[in-house]
Amino acid sequence: MKRMLTFAALTAVLAAGCGGSDTPSSDAGDPTTTSAASATTPDTGQDTTQDTTQDTTHEHDMDSMDPDHADGDHDEPVDDKGLGMLSNGHHAEMEYVELDAATQAELDRSMELSRQVAEEYPTLGAMHAAGGRNAGPYSPGLGLHVTAPWLGEGFNPDGTIDEADALHPLIVIYDGTDDDAKVAGFMYYSVAEEEPEGFPGANDFWHYHTNVCTKMGPNGTEAPLGADRSVTKEQCDAVGGLLMTKTQWMTHVWSVPGYEVADADGGTFAEVNPKLKCSDGTYYIMDPEHWPTHPMNFCKSEL
Length: 303
Prior knowledge:
Layout: E1 12-14, E2 40-42, H1 62-65, H2 101-120, H3 124-129, E3 133-134, E4 144-147, H4 163-166, E5 171-174, E6 183-190, E7 210-217, E8 220-222, H5 233-238, E9 242-246, E10 249-253
Antiparallel strand pairs: 1-2, 3-4, 4-5, 5-6, 6-10, 7-8, 7-9
């Protein structure tokens, strides 16, 4: 079984519930939910807010992660424009292994199928027209998550992503909030009791989120108080939301041409994508006090 992942951040998540599906086990590594109903929340990588679940830092290779960050001078500090503060969900250290030829071929086939989804819904407008609903705000490194219209087919209760599952990611990710925003990636989900086997190979790292307060807004699901924070039920009730103590399993896939992530920066299953920036070219997220009044975009540049 693949190891569980552990960094704090706000991400696109779906509450447990596939009408009558099994509740995740009580083992510390298996996510559960306090909600009896399904709800989606945003995917907003955030490592600058209070995190009471752990005291773990995370560093990216800034020189290789984005051309804007590399100047060839390793003696001077590199201004990463906030990229190094981004992370996503609870997960352990990501250790990648080289796959054998047969397994790599299977994984390549899964990625090919995911790109068929991108071709069918190339813009946010096309996804909305098909019935997709926003699942939270745009956030740097993570984009705008949109719940796909085939919602019921994206729960993957067996924890294995076969060809049919690869064609039905629960979430499709876009690079902006306008109708012409381009598809950038996907989020696959599983309500399996234990960490999913997921895609072929051992390099797809699955994560979960804690303390997610969700509420429905005019554009879809909102998470006014973020995730992975010490949010109480009383605080969530005060904003008219539903509190989930833990979500179930999810993983991002960056297989869309033009939005691939280099292997050195996390590869196809990286926790964040450096190509998804704020309008000013940075990755800074606004302080949590502003989140309830900016449900469409958590970039600090929006203030």
